[in-house]
Amino acid sequence: MKTDVSNRFIWFKGEILNVNDAKINVLAPTAQFGLNVFEGIPCYWNDEKKQLYAFRLHDHYERLLKSARLLQLDCPYTEEDMKKALIDVVIANEYSENLSVRQTLFVDGFGSWGSEGPVDMFVAPIPKGKTGSEYNKKGLNCCVTSWTRINDNSLSPRIKCGANYINSRMGQREAIRNGYDTCIFLNEAGKVSEGPGSCFFMVKNDVLVTPPLTDSVLESITRDTVIKLAERIGMKIIERSINRTELYVCDEAFLCGSAMEITPVLSVDRYVINRGEVGRITNALHKEYLVATVSGTQEWNTPIY
Ligand SMILES: Cc1ncc(COP(=O)(O)O)c(C=O)c1O
């Protein structure tokens, strides 16, 4: 049975339910304070093999558990429990298409923002074509947002928690209001950090450059994949701080993340990059990325069926 997004099965607190029956108490800290940690786990359908592959599943769970640990959440689930829940709910929905699986640990009950628990979990597979429009564009016109990226001493970007996305929201809303597709944040030191839901790379003189993880950047799995794929194809990669004006004169740029994969940046603050066309290196990396996600031949691919 193919289930539509608003009427599909979700794994919720140990049961597989229709999403409309998965209810959270309005006073729960997750509802009041965004007290949850989550992953968006991409799964790719390989039509030849009639198989769905979760991409870098172990790395997603490692990050999820790290986020929970940093927030001192009392997580009752192991990596094996989380993996089983994901597989069970995808199979229940009988999906044979690309997915983004939202796997969230949330603070339930009647506590407050300081509560350690009770922690529970939901796992919600979402067909990829139905994720946000900014993720489905062929290229992006970006601005540098006037909002500063959160930093490790306020709200650490290393923690993938719901509340962090309020900062992303401010930048994204400003970008849309002013006629851009999305934004790039600068950090407290005024250096380039990342997009609202993605990491940033640029190409200058055939070298791939990305900000270091200490420049207010999420420890992105796609960022790591891009670095590894670039190494495989013999590219030089540098992790270093990037100045704002470097964005305006780079040869190519792209944002990357599990949801947007590798999406070219065609302009920043109306400074056109690569004549507004998708760059050769961006294209080559995206091709490598698609093979790595869907082939089923890599240690990164976990079969679901
Ligand atoms: C702020 C931010 N940066 C980067 C990323 C990309 O991370 P990943 O590649 O692990 O999806 C995301 C996506 O979740 C994000 O929200």
From TrEMBL:
UniProt-recorded Gene Ontology molecular function terms: L-isoleucine-2-oxoglutarate transaminase activity; L-leucine-2-oxoglutarate transaminase activity; L-valine-2-oxoglutarate transaminase activity
Q: Which UniProt keywords apply?
A: Amino-acid biosynthesis, Aminotransferase, Branched-chain amino acid biosynthesis, Pyridoxal phosphate, Transferase
EC number(s) from the headed UniProt entry: 2.6.1.42
* Signal peptide boundaries: none
What GO terms in the biological process aspect are recorded for it? isoleucine biosynthetic process; L-leucine biosynthetic process; L-valine biosynthetic process
Q: Which reaction does it catalyse?
A: L-isoleucine + 2-oxoglutarate = (S)-3-methyl-2-oxopentanoate + L-glutamate; L-valine + 2-oxoglutarate = 3-methyl-2-oxobutanoate + L-glutamate; L-leucine + 2-oxoglutarate = 4-methyl-2-oxopentanoate + L-glutamate
Q: Does the keyword DNA repair apply?
A: no
Listed Gene3D superfamilies: 3.30.470.10, D-amino Acid Aminotransferase, subunit A, domain 2 (3.20.10.10)
Tell me if Membrane is a UniProt keyword of this record: no
State the superkingdom.
Bacteria
- What InterPro entries does its record include? Aminotrans_IV, Aminotransferase-like, B_amino_transI, BCAT-like_C, BCAT-like_N, Class-IV_PLP-Dep_Aminotrnsfr
The prosthetic group or cofactor this protein requires is: pyridoxal 5'-phosphate
Pathway the protein takes part in: Amino-acid biosynthesis; L-isoleucine biosynthesis; L-isoleucine from 2-oxobutanoate: step 4/4; Amino-acid biosynthesis; L-valine biosynthesis; L-valine from pyruvate: step 4/4; Amino-acid biosynthesis; L-leucine biosynthesis; L-leucine from 3-methyl-2-oxobutanoate: step 4/4
State the similarity comment: Belongs to the class-IV pyridoxal-phosphate-dependent aminotransferase family.
Purpose of the protein: Acts on leucine, isoleucine and valine.
UniProt name for this protein: Branched-chain-amino-acid aminotransferase
